[in-house]
Amino acid sequence: MSDTLKTRVGRIIAGSVNALLDHIEDQQPEAMMSQSLRDLDALLDDVRHELGKISANLHLARQQHARLNQQHQTLAEHIEHALAEGRDDLAQAAIARQMDIEAQLPVMDTSLAELHASEQTHVGYVAALQGKKRELADTLQAYQLSRRQAATPAGASTAPGIEHRLEQVSRGFENVYQRQTGLSLNHAQASLQQDSQLQALDKLVREQQIAERLARIKAGKA
Asked: Are 51 and 123 in contact (CB under 8 A)?
């Protein structure tokens, strides 16, 4: 995330809704809070856009990493075949390529770690901004209700209960989220959990591959 985007997120998350209300009592509170919600929506879109780019880059990097590892393994098999055929020249060429791959892999490992960390940071920012949006929307609804109740004569009917209004806000937020992402909130949470599980599986498979390679090397030296 760029410093500018990170600063915007930090400012929104650190901002106090109650402090905002205290400063707009004599102005146009509903208009200002509605604008704050629109600003928050715009920031959410920017963060989601950045998250999408990072996730795409991470996916491509993982594919490239897998290809290099597979190529390294294939070259090892080719080296054995070349040596069996007495073609040391071909074996040397394959070994040279293996060495190039081995030089690239640590750099790619670092890049993957950085992309993964950045992806998790952005996921956290999206969740934090969504929570802030719900907080701001709830406060706006409560503020509007309190003003209507204060202006309602004794004995007159009041606006719908706050629980009902907050339920409407929550439903509206879920509808907007679904239109923007194509996913329900429950599905999004399930997707994040699935991504985490798949990443854990990737790590498990890689650790197993390392252990198998070590075992093969040891067996070759025995």
From this structure: yes
**CA neighbours closer than 13 Å in the CB half-sphere of residue 91:** 11
Cα four-point dihedral sign 15, 134, 177, 34: negative
Residue that has been written with the tokens 């400063």 in this structure: 23
Q: Which of 142, 154, 124 lies closest to 48, judged by CA?
A: 124
Residue type, 44: L
User: Sign of torsion, CA 131 135 140 142?
Assistant: positive
Structure tokens at 106: 């640590």
Average pLDDT of the segment spanning 14-43:
67
Q: Which helix (H) or strand (E) holds 87?
A: none
pTM (global) more than 0.70: no
